[in-house]
Amino acid sequence: MKRPVLTGALTALAMMLPAVLLGAPAAHADPISQTSGFYVNPNSSPAAWAAANPGDGRAAAIRTSIAQKPMASWFGNWSGDIGGAVGGYVGAADAVDKLPLLVAYNLPGRDACGGHSGGGAGSIGAYDAWISSFAGAIGNRPAIVVLEPDSLGDFNCMSQAQINDRVGMLSRAVGQFRSRAANTWVYLDAGNPGWVDAQTMSQRLHTAGVANARGFALNVSNYFTTGENSNYGNQVSSALQRFGYGKPFVIDTSRNGNGQNGQWCNPAGRRIGTPSQQGGGAEMLLWLKTPGESDGDCGVGGGSSAGQFLPEVAYKMIYGY
């Protein structure tokens, strides 16, 4: 990877700066400048399906329009040895000088109110150990990590004790990346424009430790337009100013090409959005959810499980029908 070189004067200056300046993590180098573009995972679910089904009439479109685009890889309780899984993935990206996108999704009782993606670590202690290994496996290599989709969007079915446990785990997780992954930018998930008002979300983000993260992520696995998310993200960042800082944000554009129709679980007629890039109404537009992977046993994904790749859904999402 490309590593920045600090002169002696700059190094001395950096050592004199306060640990937190307007909520920005100190000493975390820009992972974008250290790499030559986003990593394309050759083993993603659409890539694997296209390779296994070369004679299928949908394979060429899925390969070109989805599999060859940079997307995030998700890590959770299905990943086995998390240190080995994350280390191998980040190492593969580092070997080709690309920036990997990772999603950590293993909070105990994750998706507590939605229900389709339940599961996660078996205890608070197990999660703390898991996320520590996750961060340690990245080490000094550059990476982008989105932390725990669904975690701050819906507290309606949780007790105050459960909420306190959750934000505590998130805050400690942010601290692990801050101390163990010096070239990683971490974004706490902040739901989407249709979930929680900006003032409430800013409070939740602050309590969950966003001051020590790079920023927050919007629209993960959802369909709101980039413009809607940009407006909401700016409102959330402005609301954070009451705590003494603002934050940049990223938007999941993997499935928002046609916007949303009021449904979140495998709605029909959705379309892929702008591929991963810098700028575009946020710090970055990123494909965080893999187009074609199911949200659960619902909608056009009836009979499937969350995360299962559905080639027909992927194919229709390319063309928006």
UniProtKB/TrEMBL annotation:
Its EC number is 3.2.1.-. InterPro entries: Beta_cellobiohydrolase (IPR016288), Beta_cellobiohydrolase_sf (IPR036434), Glyco_hydro_6_CS (IPR001524). It comes from the Bacteria. The keyword Signal applies. Residues 1-29 form the signal peptide. Keywords: Carbohydrate metabolism, Cellulose degradation, Disulfide bond, Glycosidase, Hydrolase, Polysaccharide degradation, Signal. SUPFAM superfamilies: Glycosyl hydrolases family 6, cellulases (SSF51989). The keyword Membrane does not apply. The active site is at 150 (proton donor). One of its GO terms (molecular function) is cellulase activity. Belongs to the glycosyl hydrolase family 6. PANTHER family: 1,4-BETA-D-GLUCAN CELLOBIOHYDROLASE C-RELATED, PTHR34876. This is Glucanase. It comes from Catenuloplanes nepalensis.
